[in-house]
Amino acid sequence: MAEAEIRKIIHVDMDAFYASVEQRDDPSLRGRPVAVGGRQRGVVMAASYEARKFGVRSAMPSVTAKRLCPELMFVKPRFDVYKDVSRQIREIFLDYTPLVEPLSLDEAYLDVTTNLKGMPLASEIAREIRARILERTGLTASAGISYNKFLAKLASDHRKPNGQTVIPPEKGSAFVEGLPVGRFHGVGPKTAEKMNRLGIHTGADLKAQTDMKIAVLNAEIAEREAQRQAERDARDQQMQMAMHTEKIEAMTKAKKVTRDGSGRVSGVE
Ligand SMILES: [Mg+2]
Question: For the residues of 126-145, what is the DSSP string, one character each?
Answer without folding.
Answer: HHHHHHHHHHHHS--EEEEE
